[in-house]
Write a structure and sequence with these properties.
Elements (H helix, E strand, L loop, with lengths): L12 H13 L3 H8 L4 H10 L2 H9 L3 H10 L2 H8 L4 H10 L2 H8 L6 H7 L3 H11 L23 H11 L8 E5 L5 E6 H6 L6 H4 L6 E2 L4 H10 L4 E5 L5 E6 H19 L14 H28 L1 H6 L2 H4 L1 H24 L8 H30 L2 H31 L9 H24 L2
Parallel strand pairs: 3-4
Antiparallel strand pairs: 1-2, 4-5
Helix pairs in contact: 1-2, 1-3, 3-4, 3-5, 6-8, 8-10, 14-15, 16-22, 19-21, 19-22, 20-21, 21-22
């Protein structure tokens, strides 16, 4: 069967990717183009995400112009930036002009600062002004992620008049499903949904249809605003300035994008790596190495604390070598307990369930949790160790588990709050650093208890 006869629309992404890679390896661009022609946009996006940067640019150039624009808009900002660096200036300028202002800002944040002025100069004065208004906000604020293209209405307009306004702007507006209602000073006084407008009589006033608006200040955090938007189930949220005047609209799709990115970063950093911008199998080896090596070096330096503690208590180990058998068990249990606490509190921070001012409450709560876990594990450890060795060794292991679990849970619980207080990503302070810290402190606790009970 020839390539032209293959029903690629029925292939899953893995099969399609294999076909494309085979065509590229043979330098048969015509076959690759034919393979792609019946494929929907969403699947082309998945293929591009899995190709290496060079092949991604080659395949992208094979797409028809309109589909190329659709595919580019559907890519993540990281992949957009990577693709821009592989395309010619004329191609980049055309794609950049097709993006919405908020999507342009996402892309500019992924490109070198020297590129932004050149791309902005290629825009029309109106589009340049819209994009610059979003660029004026700090990078982590919701103002940076809002769209300045929206449709508004007023309380004294009718449903029919509002629908006419909406139809006149429908091609440019970010969303038409939720319309901010503003007074004559552009202050937000409510919102009205498209559903209510269509269901209302033509002469019904917007004032009788509108609902209270949930607004967010433009300088507030993007992640917090995105979580509010999704938690409240809102399709769009008006963004306002310090005087409650409308400056933009923030939609549910942008909220989902922000939360996906933040959760990916948190998950990666809790494991001691930097997040990857593209799927694992298409990420260059050097980039994966770069994402891990810094953390490994930091943790290796931290692990020297554990070595130092062992050297300090070397004489104790020589007197009773059986103590060395339990070192992996104790420091592993402590590290796991601390990681559990840190993960729980980091998640609670992200959801807004706790704040840095709750540090004392979290500390006492995790202390009680750690103590309870330590007692349960300590009793089990005492029983098993007393049967295999003797009751004194069992008592050392049992008491150490109680102490280590209490300390680990407490430290693991408050570390994310401390990180948020000093404006550091809580995920960075989580698992890798807590494991290193608990290893060292756990050994100190272990040998101090052993010396006290065994008299060595």
């Amino acid at each position: 069967m020839t390539t032209e006869q293959i029903p690629t629309q029925n292939f899953d992404t893995a099969d399609l990717l294999e076909l494309i890679e085979q065509s590229l390896s043979r330098r048969d661009l015509a076959a690759a183009s034919t393979t792609l022609s019946p494929v929907p946009t969403w699947q082309i996006v998945q293929v591009l995400e899995r190709l290496n940067p060079r092949d991604c640019a080659v395949v992208y150039r094979l797409l028809p112009k309109q589909q190329a624009v659709e595919v580019f808009e559907a890519l993540s900002p990281e992949l957009q930036g990577e693709l821009v660096r592989s395309l010619q200036d004329a191609e980049v300028a055309a794609l950049f002009a097709e993006l919405d202002p908020d999507d342009r800002v996402w892309l500019l944040d992924e490109l070198p600062a020297s590129v932004a002025p050149r791309l902005l100069r290629g825009l029309s004065p109106h589009e340049r002004e819209l994009t610059a208004s979003v660029l004026g906000y700090s990078q982590d604020s919701i103002g940076r992620r809002m769209s300045p293209e929206y449709v508004t209405t007023h309380p004294d307009l009718t449903a029919a008049e509002t629908l006419r306004r909406m139809r006149a702007r429908i091609a440019d507006a970010e969303t038409i499903y939720t319309l901010p209602v503003t007074d004559h000073a552009r202050r937000v006084v409510g919102v009205v949904s498209l559903r209510d407008l269509l269901a209302a009589d033509d002469d019904a006033f917007v004032e009788s249809l509108m609902q209270d608006a949930h607004t967010v200040p433009a300088d507030s955090g993007a992640e917090a605003a995105a979580r509010d938007c999704t938690d409240l189930g809102l399709l769009a949220v008006p963004v306002v300035d310090s005087e409650h005047r409308l400056v933009g609209i923030f939609t549910i799709d942008d909220a989902a994008r922000i939360l996906k990115r933040e959760e990916s970063e948190d998950a990666a950093r809790q494991g001691g790596v930097e997040p990857l911008a593209r799927p694992y199998l298409s990420t260059p080896i050097r980039r994966i190495v770069r994402s891990r090596v810094v953390w490994l070096l930091v943790l290796a330096v931290g692990a020297t604390l554990t070595v130092k503690v062992l050297s300090v208590f070397e004489a104790t180990l020589e007197q009773l070598t059986v103590l060395a058998l339990f070192v992996p068990l104790l420091i592993g249990t402590g590290g796991n307990t601390g990681n559990q606490a840190a993960t729980t509190v980091t998640r609670a921070l992200a959801l807004g369930e706790v704040r840095p001012r709750d540090l004392v409450r979290v500390l006492t709560r995790e202390l009680r949790v750690g103590l309870s876990l330590g007692v349960l594990l300590g009793l089990l450890g005492f029983g098993i160790t007393a049967l295999v060795y003797d009751w004194q060794i069992g008592l050392v292991i049992g008491c150490t588990l109680v102490a280590v679990c209490s300390v680990a849970a407490t430290i693991g619980g408050i570390m994310p709050l401390v990180a948020r207080t000093i404006r550091v990503d809580p995920a960075v302070f989580s698992n890798p650093f807590i494991t290193t810290f608990v290893d060292a402190t756990g050994l100190v606790i272990y040998f101090v208890i052993a010396k006290a009970i065994l008299g060595i």
